[in-house]
Amino acid sequence: MKKIKIWLFLTSIFLSLYSLLFSGALVLTSNGIFDEAGNQLKSGNYADILFDGKSVYYILQDGIYTLDGRTKIDIKGAQKVGTNYVVSSSKLYKIENGNALAIDTVPSNLKNIYVKDGYIIGLDKGQIVCYYQGKVVWSMSGSFKDFKVSGNYLAAFGSQTMLFNISNPQYLKFERIYPAYRDYAYFFEYHAFSDGTKIYIYKGASRLSTTFPYRGPLFSDGENLYSGNLMITSDMFQKDLKISVKSLVSFPTTAQSETKETTPTISNAQTKEQEEQKTSQTTSEAQAKPQQEEENVVKPTEAKETPKTPKLFDLVWKVMLNDEISGKPAVKVDELYIPTLKGSIIKISNGKIEWTYRTGFVILGHVTIGNNIYAVSWDDTVYALNDRGTLNWKLKLDSDISQGPAWDGYNLYVVTDNGTVYIIKDDVKSAKITSNYKTSSYPIIPPSISLAGKIFVVDALGNLWRDKSTLGFIGKVKNLPIAYENYYTSHELGFTLIDELGITYSFVPLENSTQIIRGKSLFVTVNDVIVDAVLGKEYIYAISSSKKLYVIGKDTKKIVFTDTIPGGKYVSLSNNYLYVFGNEVRCYYVKDNPSGLWNSLYANPLNWNSAVK
């Protein structure tokens, strides 16, 4: 009797543990749908399963059905792209409460789509791009082969695996880098990766010593990890299942959530079918047909389009770069041209990288836009590209070129590290050097050009040159603005901007702060070291050495908005939008435009560095 009691006790423990091994989840296999206890609920060959927070659905070629088969949503050829999202004929539908709402159109160039909270994430020529309501909200540059979303995380696969938090999919947050993998899932508090042969488990950045065999795509129900017929629990217990997981949907249980959640219930019809399956072995049809009894056919509805106008200082989009920005980018309306330390020129438009052009070596100077897009490199060369990223011409000069070029609408001006100044005539498809002369070596700023074509250069010792003559010592300044024929000397390591009335705004760096002096009077003191700024009609926009963005009212002298940008270096203003450049490029809606005779570090958003407007 005692042995029987012990056996019953152990059996009850086993059954309890078996039940716990399956969190709230329904599993899709090649021959049916199973509950968390391993019982088959429906037999058949289903394309996928969905869960809308209350109900479970299965997908067939001719429609989407509730689990009891009584409601059919009339969407043919649906493909699951999220927990309760499907795509059919490029239309994105949200499945909820037995209905389907067409909420968006998927761009034709987007592949491997996943949808989270209405945000469409996909692969576009090596970039991972996120759309919302037809507009790009962020993108990631790089040669990514694929990506995988699990829970609140996105793993991007390339030469290495980059992990991001997308708990709020509008704002991508970088977590960390892992070795190159091909598959990913998040369960309990672990990140699981696979190279196609083994499963590797990480807690944060630390990899556990235990590995598991890879038997198929990785899935998670929040508590457990699945790979084919293998299940791994949160305590690293491995179990071989009688079924092989093709897909699954998970739902909160009391063990997973403190709040009571609605879990899908199985109708009497389903219970009866389950009981019949236990007593009768039937062969699955090639494609299971739902019960036709009292079938309710639901047509999808179209969401009403409500154009969203961004609010002041809203983040409109961002692009994450896999390279370091070196010189200041140039902006033409909404087209951004960015130089990188590795020698590339990147064009970004509307939140996506349009093209990348690689030069021969390092780029340190800014990009300038004139008849072409100009960049200079440490391979002694000036490059001229068209707006499609094709090289129109290049010129070899006498040494490395660290400072970006200047443009006055007629000529291109370049000073090399040897101190040689070149005047170049650009005929769009070709160019020629019209003249050159020698100044002192290692200039510290680009050439500044007056309205009459006078060329100003500052050498490594801080001496100011006008054409071939020195005018005296002015120190190590960050720019030399010119209004008409008058140049304005900045404070040591500082820079100066000039508004539309000819009033200067001098940015004077102190040890832990910056004084902004308007004319001869103190305008405002910022408790940070400002490294770049631009004058708008309404505001001053500045970025600091601590990577912080400041928006300062020109009338109120108050800071009205701040944000922190990883690696932030430069700001530019164009066509009602502010662009901030660092490890990522951000676009903010500011409803403002550049204003002034010299409104940016290098005169204007195009980086002309000349007095010509």
Can you describe this structure?
The structure is a single chain. This protein has 613 residues and is mostly beta strands. Among the domains are: 1-81 and 251-308, no CATH class; 315-589, YVTN repeat-like/Quinoprotein amine dehydrogenase (Methylamine Dehydrogenase, Chain H). 5% of the residues lie in helices and 46% in strands. The chain has an eight-stranded mixed β-sheet, with no helix packed on it. The termini are far apart.
SSE blueprint:
Elements: H1 2-21, E1 25-29, E2 32-34, E3 40-43, E4 48-51, E5 56-60, E6 63-66, E7 71-73, E8 79-82, E9 85-88, E10 91-96, E11 99-105, E12 111-116, E13 119-124, E14 127-132, E15 135-140, E16 146-150, E17 153-157, E18 161-165, E19 173-178, E20 183-187, E21 190-194, E22 198-203, E23 206-213, E24 218-220, E25 225-227, E26 230-232, E27 238-240, E28 247-250, H2 268-279, E29 296-298, E30 301-302, E31 315-320, E32 330-332, E33 335-339, E34 344-349, E35 352-358, E36 368-369, E37 373-376, E38 381-385, E39 391-396, E40 406-407, E41 412-415, E42 420-426, E43 431-438, E44 448-449, E45 455-458, E46 463-466, E47 469-473, E48 482-483, E49 486-487, E50 495-498, E51 504-509, E52 514-518, E53 521-526, E54 530-535, E55 539-544, E56 548-553, E57 559-564, E58 570-574, E59 577-581, E60 584-589
Parallel strand pairs: 7-29, 11-30, 15-31
Antiparallel strand pairs: 1-2, 1-28, 2-3, 4-5, 5-6, 6-7, 8-9, 9-10, 10-11, 12-13, 13-14, 14-15, 16-17, 17-18, 18-19, 20-21, 21-22, 22-23, 24-25, 25-26, 26-27, 31-60, 32-33, 33-34, 34-35, 36-37, 37-38, 38-39, 40-41, 41-42, 42-43, 44-45, 45-46, 46-47, 48-49, 50-51, 51-52, 52-53, 54-55, 55-56, ...
